[in-house]
Backbone:
């Protein structure tokens, strides 16, 4: 038996030589295949089409894939061990990551700074000349931790499990170091001229990066480490980075629960904390976060809502990348679908799903209970993309959680929808979602003219924070922001269930 | 009796007010409460379960149907208890330590009640010791454990281990469920039954009690 085998990735014709017994997960992740369940054969997120070569079917695959799919060569990449030459079709999976291009007022400083937003799924960094505010380099990447679990609970679970082969903290810190070096090289400046590296991210990313104990975040009451509420300062030496100690590395403090410094930076960027009138900021990432408040007081909460909006757990769901249906428009009782890249559709992303359900409700294909109105088991949107009844149910869970979060925060604030003057949509999804559709399905119960997309507010806030004379200024925002745990709210279950249904048309 | 067919309908449609009214009427007309449960409530919840299984119903419809059924049972149960009628079996249910999610657990509890079981709900974030002491005290046929987080699943194993150590394991059947739980995990930790749905849990409980 040959000791080495060749993996060929079609249609790009990339050949990779590996030793016998190598796991496909390790090989395919750098090529963009994602493993939403962490590679445990629990979802179909990593399915690939095997064109040639050995790839046995496991009972788990039989349960998750149809006979037809298996016959056509579809397999779950995570279960693959290379035992011979193998040819795999891998449609290119290029995800777009939202950076920030907005301009802002600042006070010039000496030297260079880097702002980094560490998302559960994506990481983005910008290198700035602090004397003129110019962005000299931008770098985006998928979070290398993603192959060990799609969402934060999966990551925590991996980290605390006894058979974890890698340290997720080390993975994250070394990926950020690589990203920094790439940016410094792209900008063509000496490493020593980087004065500050300022990082933001949700509480879990903060705990991994800073090396805090992750166990308290694994169980009730999900209370982060006390250190989590302070600005963490690290030297490159402490992090094992090849940077001089003249560079200071700062991770901004969290707000409570899973709501981290990315949201703190978002509040800073959207200036909710300066206004008399109430504003609302919603970040629909892998984890959904909501902030409501004004200059007196702010409330924040997080909900596990994101997966459906990012295409996870949707039968033909995918991220907003080439081939995804990103919009559905109603035209004279019919509808048209827009596909990213303009080619053949191969799946649907979050904004397309929200649009499709809005059209479905208007055309009475979908009832307010979420059921398809006819007895058909699914809706053939445009060949080959279909929506199943369970896909609608997943969206109902996600939108129910966000809408329930908004309702509970408003109640706690003794306020109501009418009192919210501005609604800021943070993050990539907020940028692409159609506001009318979001309102139609009851996801954002606000008048559409009050809703505005604000892009990557976490990165913008981090960038602005680079120019602060005293970073502690941000702690004033933190002190005025209270974290509300939605799950322990006595009415959560009722409100959640109530918000799962769609508005009547 | 036509009125009682309407009772099944009221529960399937989640009309709590009507379900209560019809139940009270039937009791006033001296209909046997056991007959109300067996011929109208159980089939109604079976139908609700069937609709949920085939994706016709979703969590909101399930919750309001369960609430309607609960209203009926509140009128019926005291009478059954005073007559000394035996329930189909006794179940202790709870969401395991570290986990606060209760929608799934409540649905399973309602479906079991609707199927004629006596259900003792210990709530959420229930420590293994609490399960152990409740089992000692109430001597149930089943212990049903729920977890929604991958990080709290290990509490299921700890609970089963605690029952084992107290010598109670062989006295009960253990049912497990929740989004991250699988048949494989159930086998691994030595549970007796697993279901991925609330109505499925009823089927398993009925099968295991024989």
Residues:
């Amino acid at each position: 038996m040959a000791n080495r085998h060749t993996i060929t990735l079609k249609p790009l014709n990339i050949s990779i030589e590996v030793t016998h017994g190598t796991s496909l997960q390790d090989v395919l992740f750098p090529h963009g295949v994602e493993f939403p369940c962490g590679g445990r054969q629990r979802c179909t997120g990593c399915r690939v089409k095997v064109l040639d070569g050995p790839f046995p079917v496991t009972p788990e695959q039989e349960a998750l894939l149809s006979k037809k799919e298996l016959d056509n060569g579809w397999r779950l990449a995570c279960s693959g061990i290379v035992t011979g030459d193998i040819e795999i079709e891998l449609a290119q999976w290029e995800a777009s990551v939202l950076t920030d291009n907005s301009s802002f007022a600042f006070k010039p400083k000496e030297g260079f700074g880097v702002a980094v937003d560490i998302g559960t799924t994506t990481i983005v960094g910008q290198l700035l000349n602090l004397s003129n505010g110019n962005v000299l380099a931008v770098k985006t990447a998928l979070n290398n931790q993603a192959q060990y679990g799609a969402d934060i609970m999966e990551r925590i679970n991996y980290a605390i499990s006894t058979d974890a082969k890698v340290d997720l903290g080390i993975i994250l810190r070394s990926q950020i170091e690589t990203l920094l070096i790439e940016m410094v090289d792209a900008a063509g400046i000496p490493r020593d001229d980087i004065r500050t590296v300022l990082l933001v991210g949700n509480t879990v990313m903060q705990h991994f990066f800073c090396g805090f104990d992750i166990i308290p975040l694994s169980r009730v009451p999900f209370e982060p480490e006390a250190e989590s509420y302070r600005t963490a300062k690290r030297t490159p030496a402490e992090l094992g980075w090849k940077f001089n100690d003249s560079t200071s590395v700062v991770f901004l403090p969290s707000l409570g629960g899973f709501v981290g410094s990315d949201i703190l930076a978002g509040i800073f960027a959207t200036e909710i904390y300066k206004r008399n009138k109430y504003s609302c900021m919603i970040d629909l990432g892998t984890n959904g976060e909501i902030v409501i408040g004004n200059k007196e007081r702010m409330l924040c909460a997080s909900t596990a809502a994101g997966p459906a909006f990012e295409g996870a757990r949707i039968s033909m769901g995918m991220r907003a990348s080439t081939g995804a249906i990103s919009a559905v428009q109603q035209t004279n009782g019919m509808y048209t679908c827009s596909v990213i890249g303009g080619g053949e559709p191969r799946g649907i992303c979050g904004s397309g799903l929200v649009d499709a359900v809005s059209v479905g409700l208007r055309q009475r294909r979908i009832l307010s209970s979420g059921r398809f109105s006819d007895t058909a088991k699914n809706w053939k949107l445009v060949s080959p993309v279909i929506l199943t009844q369970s896909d609608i149910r997943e969206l109902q869970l996600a939108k129910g959680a966000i809408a329930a979060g908004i309702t509970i925060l408003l109640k706690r604030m003794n306020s109501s929808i009418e009192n919210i003057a501005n609604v800021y949509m943070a993050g990539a999804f907020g940028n692409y979602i159609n506001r009318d559709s979001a309102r139609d399905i009851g996801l954002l119960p606000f008048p559409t003219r009050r809703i505005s997309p604000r892009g990557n507010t976490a990165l913008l806030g981090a960038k602005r924070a680079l120019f602060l004379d005293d970073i502690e200024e941000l702690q004033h925002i933190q002190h005025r922001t209270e974290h509300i745990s939605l799950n322990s709210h006595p009415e959560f279950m009722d409100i959640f269930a109530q918000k799962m249904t769609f508005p009547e048309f | 009796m036509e009125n009682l067919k309407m009772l099944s309908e009221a529960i399937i449609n989640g009309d709590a007010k009507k379900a209560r009214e019809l139940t009270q009427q039937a009791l006033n007309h001296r209909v046997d409460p056991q007959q109300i449960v067996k011929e109208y409530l159980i089939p109604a919840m079976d139908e609700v379960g069937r609709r949920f299984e085939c994706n016709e119903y979703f969590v909101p419809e399930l919750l309001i149907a369960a609430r309607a059924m609960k209203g009926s049972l509140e009128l019926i149960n005291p009478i059954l208890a005073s007559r000394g009628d035996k329930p189909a079996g006794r179940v202790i249910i709870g969401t395991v330590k570290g986990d606060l999610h209760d929608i799934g657990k409540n649905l399973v509890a309602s479906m079991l009640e609707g199927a004629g079981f006596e259900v003792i709900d210990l709530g959420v974030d229930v420590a293994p010791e609490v399960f152990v002491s409740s089992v000692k005290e109430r001597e149930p046929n089943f212990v049903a454990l729920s977890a929604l987080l991958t990080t709290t699943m290990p509490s299921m194993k700890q609970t089963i281990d605690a029952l084992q150590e107290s010598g109670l394991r062989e006295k009960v059947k253990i049912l497990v469920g929740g989004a991250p739980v699988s048949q494989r995990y159930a086998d691994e930790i030595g549970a007796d039954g697993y279901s991925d749905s609330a109505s499925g849990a009823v089927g398993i409980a009925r099968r295991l009690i024989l």
